[in-house]
Every structure is written in C-alpha cells, then in structure tokens.
Specification:
The chain has one helix and five strands. By secondary structure, it is mainly beta. The chain has a five-stranded mixed β-sheet, with helices on one face.
C-alpha cells in the first residue's frame, strides 16, 4: 500500500502499524508526535495502530522558542 509520509508517497506493507512506519522513517524517538489523517495517535498505541491505505502520515517534532 502507499501512504503519504510527511508529504511524500511511500510504499509500505498492507498491515503496517504506526511503529512500523516510524521505524522505516528513522526510528521512534523522544520529542515526536504522529498524526494519521490529521488525528494524533497516542504513543502507547503506536505498536497496534494500523495505518490505512492512502493515509496522510505526519511525524511532528516538538520545538521550543519564541
């Protein structure tokens, strides 16, 4: 299946979870959040949350400053 990972179409297995996509994109790390189709996925759900075909998958990094 294809998903839109941070704005770029990328191929993943049909049963990919949020954790699978993150691992392929550089790993799970502190200070990030994930949104699938605009909905934030809780970190505790990453290992079991399925990513649907055609989903918009965004990895967001916390930044500080003003």
């Amino acid at each position: 299946m294809e998903i839109k990972l941070n704005g770029r179409w990328t191929e993943f297995p049909d049963d990919a979870t949020v954790a699978d996509v993150l691992d392929a994109a550089g790993g799970q790390r502190p200070g990030i959040a994930v949104a699938v189709d605009g909905v934030v996925v809780r970190r505790g759900d990453w290992a079991t949350a399925a990513v649907p075909k055609g989903a918009a998958f965004d990895v967001l990094t916390a930044v500080q400053g003003g």
